[in-house]
């Protein structure tokens, strides 16, 4: 039975990943910022353990890691993210929001990777998937979303460095653009459902090998141009 840890599990893609992994018989550790307000997990049954984790707080990440202990983890999905507020133009960027978004989208995932490295290695074939965005790619041909795009681009580089630095460890590190998804962040006019995105991400993770470490994928398994 696989053991999977998902951050940002309270709603959207995160809660859908939890539900789908549970349906497949996995043991799931669902990490949420507020255990009292996780609407996507309401009524969820199965082998699930809800753990408090604020990915913007190093202390919260450390506490969550201590709660998980030395349990082997087959998969860790860095899914939690923050859009970065409304002011994301060059002339009105909110610097406080930029710092907050960097903590959540970039530094938090790195600290999570470090905190759970031993757990992933203990599985013998650990997989660390980082949810980024097509907006983070240098090939994205549009402006705007300065805060969100820059912090996700930084996450992409963090994941690439982890893949290189952990090349001798039994851990595969990759990135995925989840698609434009109908969630609170993506809005009602987005292209795909959370169910479709989560299903694609799970299939991608299941098929990855160590040779795929450092790659940037689309949710459907295609390689995303950087």
Distinct helical segment count: 6
Which percent band covers the strand fraction? 15-25%
Estimate the global geometry from the Cα principal axes.
globular
SSE pattern, N- to C-terminal: EHEEHEHHEHEHE
- Tell me the helix content: 25-40%
Rg: 16 Å
Secondary structure blueprint with pairings:
Layout: E1 3-7, H1 12-23, E2 27-32, E3 48-52, H2 58-68, E4 75-78, H3 95-115, H4 117-122, E5 126-131, H5 146-165, E6 171-177, H6 194-207, E7 216-218
Notes on the protein architecture:
The protein has 226 residues and is α/β, with parallel strands linked by helices. The chain is built from six helices and seven strands. The chain has a seven-stranded parallel beta sheet, with helices on both faces. Helix 5 links the parallel strand 5 and strand 6. Helix 1 crosses helix 6, helix 2 runs parallel beside helix 3 and helix 3 runs parallel beside helix 5. The mean pLDDT is 93.
Quick take:
Helices cover 37% and strands 16% of the residues.
Give a quick set of tags describing it.
single chain, 226 residues, alpha/beta, seven-stranded parallel beta sheet, 6 helices, globular
